[in-house]
Amino acid sequence: MQKNDELVLASVGNRFLANLIDNVVIGLISFMIASLAGIPILELNLEAMNANPDAFAQTYSRFLMVALPASFLYRFLQESSSRQATLGKRVMKLRVVKVTGENLTLRDSLLRNLVKELSGYLYMIYLVGLFNPLHQCVHDLAARTYVVDNV
């Protein structure tokens, strides 16, 4: 455990890039699971969507039923592990800790990632991190966590 005064907060830019990497990975995982489950993502095209908007809505809803749990599990399991970081955070050399500098517990990771999934689809919520002096987004505030440089 690092002492609180030794923690170096991650920059908003590095957090953004880590999240972008994670979203690409989650998208690929979700796409593979959806394909295996028979959700016809590749069969959608502009012509078909215009001709039958309900078909697009149905397919998208089915895809979300795969993507949302995949996203939650991806983040929850990795951030509650000994590495305390998703793949994107590891690439960017970041990790998630409690505000005390301690490792996250399963409960901390559960709360952080439930709030992240619920609030993440309202992208304006991420603006909180831009204006918070400690770069904490809503899910960090709820779980009392920081994203820090992995030094």
Describe what you observe in this structure.
The chain has one domain (4-149). 58% of the residues lie in helices and 7% in strands. It has a two-stranded antiparallel sheet. The protein contains 7 helices and 2 strands, in the order ααααβαααβ. α1 (12-36) packs across α3 (53-79) and α3 (53-79) runs antiparallel to α5 (106-119). It is mainly alpha-helical and 151 residues long. The model has no long low-confidence stretch (mean pLDDT 85). It is a multi-pass membrane protein. Pfam families: RDD. It is found in: Cell membrane.
What descriptors fit this protein?
mainly alpha, single chain, two-stranded antiparallel ribbon, 58% helix, 7 helices, elongated
- Uncertain spans: none
Major beta sheet, specifics?
2 strands, antiparallel
Count of DSSP helices? Answer: 7
Share of helical residues: 55-70%
Secondary structure category: mainly alpha
Integer average pLDDT: 85
How would you sum up the global shape?
elongated
Number of domains: 1
Q: Strand order, biggest sheet? A: 1-2
| Percent of sequence in beta strands | 5-15%
SSE sequence, one letter per element: HHHHEHHHE
Distance between the termini: 11 Å
What is the C-alpha radius of gyration, as a whole number of Å?
Answer: 17 Å
Strand element count: 2
GO cellular component, one term: plasma membrane
Keywords: Cell membrane, Membrane, Transmembrane, Transmembrane helix
InterPro entries: Pra-immunoreactive, RDD
Subcellular location: Cell membrane
